[in-house]
Amino acid sequence: MERFVFLLTAGVADGVVFALFALSLVLIWRSTRIINFAAAAMAVAACYLALAVTNLTGSYWVGLITAVLAGAAFGWAVERGIMQAAHNPLSGVILAIGTVMVLQALTGIIAGPRYRPVSIPFDDRPLTVGGVSTLSPYDLFTITVAVALMAGLRLLFARTSLGLQMRAAAFAPEMSRLLGVQAARMRTIGWVLAASVGAPAVMLAVPGELGLHPHAGDTLFVSAFAVAVIGGLDSSEGAVIGGLLVGILISLVTGYLGAGVAPLGVLALLVLVLLVRPAGLFASVKARQV
Q1: What SS3 state is found at 122?
Q2: Digit-coded pLDDT (tens) for 45-96
Q3: Which end of the chain has fewer beta carbons closer than 10 Å to its terminal beta carbon, N or C?
Q4: Which of 222, 167, 227, 210 is nearest to 20 (CA)?
Q5: Residue whose C-alpha is closest to residue 216's, from 47, 72, 14, 26
Q6: Which of 66, 223, 201, 199 is nearest to 145 (CA)?
Q7: Phi, psi angle pair for 192, to nearest 5°
Q8: What is the tens place of the pLDDT at every residue in 255-284?
Q9: Residue 125 class from Cβ within 10 Å (0-12 exposed, 13-18 middle, 19+ buried)?
Q10: DSSP state at residue 160
């Protein structure tokens, strides 16, 4: 029982990071109908800048803020400089894959292929409650940051005029243009927001690995993509709940059956959801037509 509780809490900590990164994929899909395969490479490049700032200033917090700002800058640059040339979803995917290759190559050339350790502001040893190992202080910090960012996005879309315009531009672009909404600008803002939450997600996840390297976000992207599909690519709520499901599943399967079996567990869940509800667990009954 103690082991189960520990694995369950660890799965929640991983799941909120998966959910945060999946939200960045959902934001872009809803506005452009493109899966941003460059999301991980963009986030890793932003994290390298954040790590450089952290080493320069000695402050993890300044580095974390830098990750958010650098991610936003990469989102703006990629959307305005590259994705403007995408005239259909297929060309968008091709451009995104090309962006991955260029960013990973440049990151490897500039920073080198070696792993770079990332310092963390809190202890990563599990806390013991009633004799049962639970989350570490760093896990609690990760959950807090991820939940705060997700809550901020929720508040933006539900309570602000900008959020309303972004939703209108995503679901009814032609009608929103007739009503005076600048759909192209809303699409750019969507990319900026998506990249600004993707970068800190990678930065939060990296300490759980060996360190930062040019391909540090690849595994996170695969898990987050599965989360987005399971929850429904049009559903932000699905990304959150799907992230928790996948995080807990990976933790339990890894703990009881081994790390090598965990991808098979995620694949089985993905196939089951696609067979039962192809659009995702929390997708709308009727898909938006573009």
Answers
A1: coil
A2: 999 999 999 999 999 999 999 999 999 999 999 999 888 887 777 888 889 8
A3: N
A4: 227
A5: 47
A6: 201
A7: -65, -45
A8: 989 888 888 989 999 999 989 888 888 876
A9: exposed
A10: S
